[in-house]
Fold:
Amino acid sequence: MIIVKTEYELQIMRECGRIMAELLNLLADMVKPGVKTCELDRFAEEFILSKGCKPAFKGYRGYPATLCVSVDNEVIHGIPSDRKLHEGEIVSIDVGIFYKGYCTDAARTYRVGKVDTKRNKLIQVTYEALQRAIKVAVPGKRLGDISREIYNYVRSHGFDVVREFTGHGVGKFLHEDPMIPNYVPYKWQNLRLQRYMTLAIEPMVVAGKPNVYVKDDNWTVVTKDNEPAAHFEDTVVVNNHPEVLTADSLIDSPP
Ligand code: CO
Structure:
């Protein structure tokens, strides 16, 4: 069941999204060679709690942390650990925040120092795929239009999308209907978008083959060919001018 939000609910989600944007920008500055992924996680958890919010991932299906920190060939759901970031890697940070009973979900892929051309392009293409998909989140369009926008853009740049994981509705729950695949066709692609649906759109893009597996930790999703992956996600309100809740134009800059 797809839940369309009220203006009042959107106000709460907007506040939640502003806190998210602030956190993402602080995390961006912390991503440097030598930083442990658990240090990012600890910072994020303390920040979220200090704002009167709650981490949305911690405890979700037993997930143990506030952030998902996925390094290089890890696509999503990397568990923060003692692992240090190294120059040349890319790192995807995914975070969910609950505020006054409502959730926003967002992710960014950052460069650790200088990265090679392939990784630079991967980040740019994934970011741009999300920006293009956001522009399609208008009433009257179909869910599949979002997916097709992502898929076509990514494929036209020589990269591919992961099939096993999708975007999703978000609000009172971290995951609501509908699922939003990053490819077409699929069963629900003809669903009409309605004003005030809130969608977590999240292209997961790989430089090599789209095949992935889950590591022994039962969470970390890794590319089979060990090629790098990137992940951008924003929580978006469907409207004539789609509203991005988890980015603030004043503080959030393109990668
Ligand atoms: Co999500």
Remarks:
- The pocket of cobalt (II) ion is lined by residues 105, 168, 200, 202, 233 (CB under 6 Å).
- The radius of gyration is 17 Å.
